[in-house]
Amino acid sequence: MESVTQKMDKEYRNTEDVQTDHILSKRLSKIIQTRIETDQEALDALKQLSTFYTENSLQARRNLRSQIEKRSLDINQQFLASFSEVKESFDIVYKDVAEMNDSIKDMTKRLHNSKIQTKQLLNISSQLQQERDHNISEQKILDALIGRFQLSPEDISVFQGSKKEFLMTNDIFAVLDKVQGIHDECKILMQYGLQTLALDIMEQMTLYQESALEKLYRWTQDHCRNVENSDLTDLITQAMARLQDRPVLFRYVIDEYNVCRRSKVTEDFINALTRGGPSGNPAPIEMRAHDSQIYVTDMLVWLNKAIVMEKHNLQLLMKHCDKVDVDNMVREALTVICEGLCQPLKMRVEKILNVPSQAPVLYSIVNLLRYYRKCISKVVNEGLVRETLANLQSLCENNFFGTLQQQVANKLVKVEAPPRDLSPTLAVTNLLAVLRDMLSTANMSEGREEDMAKITTCIMDPLLRAVNEQAARLPPTDMAVYMLNCIYEIYTCLELFEFMEERLERLAAQSDAQIDTLTSEQVSSLVANLNVGPIYTILQERNHGPLSELPGMEPSNLRSFLEKMCHLTTHPDALLLQQTNLLSSSKHKRVVQKRAFEVLLAIYRQVHVAVHDPSNGYDSPQLIFDKAPEELEKALL
Amino acid sequence: MSAGPYNYSYIFKYIIIGDMGVGKSCLLHQFTEKKFMADCPHTIGVEFGTRIIEVSGQKIKLQIWDTAGQERFRAVTRSYYRGAAGALMVYDITRRSTYNHLSSWLTDTRNLTNPSTVIFLIGNKCDLEGQRDVTYEEASKFAEENGLMFVEASAKTGDNVEEAFLETAKKIYQSIQDGRLDLNAAESGVQHKPSQPGRNNLSSDQQASKDNCAC
Ligand SMILES: Nc1nc2c(ncn2[C@@H]2O[C@H](COP(=O)(O)OP(=O)(O)OP(=O)(O)O)[C@@H](O)[C@H]2O)c(=O)[nH]1
Ligand SMILES: [Mg+2]
Predict the structure, then answer these.
(1) Which of B7, B204, B209 to probe by mutation at the A interface, max A CB count within 10 Å?
(2) What range defines the domain where residue B50 resides?
């Protein structure tokens, strides 16, 4: 409204101002141009004006200004009053705000303070937190360290056991491994510079180890003898493997084992001998003591078996031992364990030998001893066992050869005269039967060559001496035949066996000598029978002149020589010595006969030549000797 | 001692003869075993020993018959003379009687063996010088007179034992070389191993006749 008046006022002044005519015109035109109906302000102002300017009178017009001014004043005053109220309100608000400001300031200050305090707390707490974290990790490390480098109480109880009893379980081996592992790992600690700790732990572990091994040792020593008990085998063998690291303890266990087993196996042997198995089955070995072969066999079989078992158990005991020479240990241990067996065996075998037995029985005992000695020596070949078996064997061998010698001597005590048929005497054939039997057995035994040689010597030497003694009392022909018959018998016996070459050679040579002797006797007898002695003697003489003129060389005489020779071709045995016919060997007989005939033929050949020699003056030689020597030879030989 | 049976080219047969107790068995034992048997029992009948020796590069097997000196075995021992190539005639230098009997031993030997048999006289026990009863000269003269080889030996110490056996073998071998010894004759006491399968046949009539004659 004010602006409208101002504007009107302005326009009024403008109209008055002449100088500024055209400005005025401009303004006027502007006003004219102004479209009041579109000017909201003007419209409002006019609307307002219409409220109080009701009558369009001069007065009214004159008063309008003042009226408007008055109205304006009123309004302003009204305005002022209203503003005063507002101002008052504002003042109150201001005051409040100021108060608030103060409060806030105070609060801010307090906040600030508390902020500072909180920060400190935070610092502390974060510090604590850090410490806590550190501690936790240290704790973890320590736990890990303890877990890794210390034994758990359970571990410790495994080998310490309760006060009263130590219970052996497989766990102890795990603990031992652990202890060893810890001990080994201490080296790592050392590398990280934790010398003291490492050394302490190591010392501690060593103590544990000692303590555990000590327990293990005591337990093993108590239980080792039962190693074959399947419940214990595993524990014992493992324990032995552990104890290897403590040679002294290991040795003690083995010693203990040996002592236990020695008395056990000895006791078992005595029981097997005297009591037999449970409820007498098998029967006690001694029950058959009357049959020394069976008795010795049973004992040796038992021993062999037991010794093999002992070896087996020892090997079982040391099954897991890889740091000791197990084979050697087993051997040594067996030597000790078996010692106790020697005396009972020795006593019994000696007792058997004290009773006179037949040589073949003794020989079979010798062979049993040899065989089992060999078997056993593969298992134990030292100490008392070896010595005992060797002694028993040689004792038995000596006994056997002594007995055999005695037996042979007994059979030959008196020199029997050979029978009329000049066959070997009963003593000779008997001894040869013994020899054959003994050699057949010896042939199948250990060391047969030596045995056979010894047995042969043992029998043959006295036998040949006896045959010589017998033969020496006979006339030469009988002697030769008897010798030949005996030698033949002996030869055929020895021929069956090996290693007899030298003996056979000797017998053959001896036989040759006797055949020579017999041949010589046989020839003499033939020559006498055929009455060719004088003929031959004459032939040998030099300067005998014509033979036909000599007595004894008559054609008839020579003719009868030939006839006798011819008779021989058809009856070759006719003129054989009675003794030659007694030869057991037909070969010997043939040889003697053939050689004797050869001599006759040689003489015939000489006479034949002489008869056909014209200087000897035979008229018709072919009438005397109508057979050529070759013809006769063919027929005779 | 024993060698393979065909490791030699000849077999020579020897006999050892002489009174009982002169040491025949000991000499044989010394020769085959190189050992002295202090108490040797009397020989009953005959004993036998072999050894392979070498003569002029030839291996020779000696088959030696050790005879009993006891009179009662004379018949038995005579069988072994026949085939001998060598005869060792032994006496005991400490016992004159054993020397005195030599001529009878020699006669036996000459009668029963063939002329080529080498006879070697051994005066045994020469280790017992203090008890000597027969001088070396005397025995040596006897040997010479009878065409025997001679040596004094000791079966105890082994002195000259080897020599006596070897010298005999050499002499026999020489006879073979000279052709004086007929290898084919059964009584030669020699077998030629490779060619001759056995000796059980008389291949020399001459020899056989002589043999017959000797009886
Ligand atoms: N000092 C000594 N003693 C000997 C010697 N040779 C043999 N003897 C001993 O003489 C004894 C007889 O020896 P033998 O060899 O048995 O005599 P042998 O000639 O075989 O006797 P027979 O068999 O009976 O003919 C034995 O006791 C021998 O110890 C020797 O060279 N020196
Ligand atoms: Mg003798």
Answers:
(1) B209
(2) 10-199
